[in-house]
Amino acid sequence: LSDITVTDDKCQNMSGKLGDTNGNNLLDPHEVWIYSCTINLKHTTISTVTVTAKANGLTATSSDSITINVNISQPTTSPGLPEWKIVSGILAAFILFIILKQKSNIKKRK
Q: What's the whole-model pTM score?
């Protein structure tokens, strides 16, 4: 096959032709050419690729579509503890420390 063109209806910057192992610009029977394209998608998209090639004076065209599922999840945040709970927790620990210290002092006096 010669004069191969690959187009994608969603991505204009097709790159590739990786796999032309002998560099003759003909898709030989033992070769597999790979084309790629990078695009940022924000929602599920149907992409249609069309390939056109020539052989023996004839032109062949083939198209195929693929659905690309895009699931963008929103980052979740943990509500955590409100600031007043943290302060009250520290205060409670401090009060407990004082109570235990006083009990220790009372036992020492006896």
A: 0.59
